[in-house]
Amino acid sequence: LTRNRYPDLKKGPYADLTGQDVDYFSNLLPGRVLTDASDLEGSNTDWLGTCRGSSQLLLRPKTTDEVSKILEYCNGRKLAVVPQGGNTGLVGGSVPVFDEIIISTQLMNQIISLDDISGTLECQAGCVLAALDSYVSDSNLTMPLDLGAKGSCHIGGNLSTNAGGVRLLRYGSLHGSVLGLEAVLASGEIIDCKSTLRKDNTGYDLKQLFIGSEGTLGIITAVSILCPQKPKSVSVAFLGCESFETVLSIFKQAKHSLGEILLAFEFMDSASMDTVRDNLNLTSPVSEFPFYVLIETGGSDGKHDEEKLTAFLENQMSSGLISDGTVATESTKIANIWGLRERMAEGLMVDGYNYKYDVSLPLSKFYQLVDDMRDRVGGLATRVVGYGHVGDGNLHLNVTSPQYDEELMSLIEPFIYDWVSKYKGSISAEHGLGFKKRNFIYHSKSKSAVDLMKRMKLLMDPNGILNPYKLLPDN
Ligand code: FAD
Ligand code: 2HG
Ligand code: ZN
After folding, report:
1. Which residues line the pocket of ligand 1, CB cutoff 6 A?
2. Domain positions in the chain
3. EC number(s) per UniProt (predicted)?
4. What is the CATH architecture assignment of 233-344?
5. Where would you tag: which of 85, 97, 119, 220 has the fewest CB atoms within 10 A of its CB?
6. Which fold has domain 111-226?
7. Tens digit of each residue's pLDDT (9 = 90 or more) over 52-66
């Protein structure tokens, strides 16, 4: 029976699963069909533990042909599906809302080829990001994206959310580094856009449609992606800053002085530091400051790169912008510093309920949103923290409370979306809209743009079986 956790939402015009359907899939994917409620528990619930569906069926195809047969059948029967990779998404997009069939890419984890001259990697969509990075690293290459969830997220999930992460500053977005892909439409039709070319202006660049479409237009089954050279050595500086203006001055100087060796420029405020200290027992290598900056550098000449970073830091010290900081070149120390920043999402969860926002803002307005939010919610929240990819203009604003609090939520939304819209920011910088944010899309996109999105959805998925209730708004 379909349990409705979302009283304002009705199940769409989809069929209910029958025993005959399960028999069909069991024949197609012997031993790779899960129906037991306890086996499905993890896949029915999102990483944050705030969205939960009641799917009764999880399918684990290994090949593109199998995905095609699954979708052809589901489309014919009008059975809704949700594609799922590592289930690390943060907007409720990767789990069913009602009883959608979960199509998992867990077993689509084969590497197809690696050209170590061009740096092109071809693989199936279910490869785990960290596994790919360690594979290409043997050829002195690295993946063009890096994020805290790398140990679980799948490359297909990364493409589907157009994940950003901590090295977007250096390597750019997946819209640039993905060279080709293969996807299956709702009808089962396999779309071959498997180019491995750096330059290819022959017609519409269809692969871009699937990047960032959160599983609503097709299921990505294979990917070809350009891997940059692995930096010969990496250094990390972690610095205390007296004000957010100082953070911005250091950023400007870092771009100027570190140029091509700048890999990442991240920031966190003191409330963020308190979070990982209180909740994860991590220790800061620098004394207390209102803000902290994490700078990562890496290039092709370790000695030269280190000299550059040292000269830069000395300059910042002598101009009085920095008074305390630490530099790491050794991998354990680097990992410890990154842990302070990358384990923030995990640390916040310990507080209870997370109100999670991921916005793009002009740097001149960037931190003002956190101050305004703190004033607005007052003592109702456990914490209000601001951190993120400041080098890309991307703020992660999180509010926490012991449990979900309706009053607190009504202070946060729609205030935050109106605020971001007023300054022409984006209400979803890198996590997507998923289930949670889709009805706020008009705060960042025009009606004409959303109308065209709806027409594209209708063309590519006429029965609306692919990840319903996600990305597109109700109206
Ligand atoms: P899932 O969560 O399984 O799915 C995400 C969406 O993609 C869903 O809508 C799903 O239906 C769809 N999907 C999945 N696979 C496919 C496929 N093969 N074809 C079509 N659709 C598919 N995100 C960032 O951008 N930057 C970060 O720095 C970042 N850091 C994170 C840190 C942590 C600790 C966590 C938990 C998450 C973080 N995220 C970050 C969010 C998340 O990791 C990314 O969105 C990631 O790209 C999702 O990959 P996944 O395989 O887990 O996808
Ligand atoms: C990060 O950059 C992720 O750490 C998660 O995008 C952000 O949890 C968040 O707010
Ligand atoms: Zn992020």
Report:
1. 47, 82-90, 93-94, 105, 125, 147-149, 153-154, 156-158, 160-161, 163-165, 214-215, 219-220, 345, 430-431, 434, 467, 470
2. 19-106, 111-226, 233-344, 351-444
3. 1.1.99.39
4. 2-Layer Sandwich (3.30)
5. 119
6. 3.30.465
7. 999 999 999 999 999
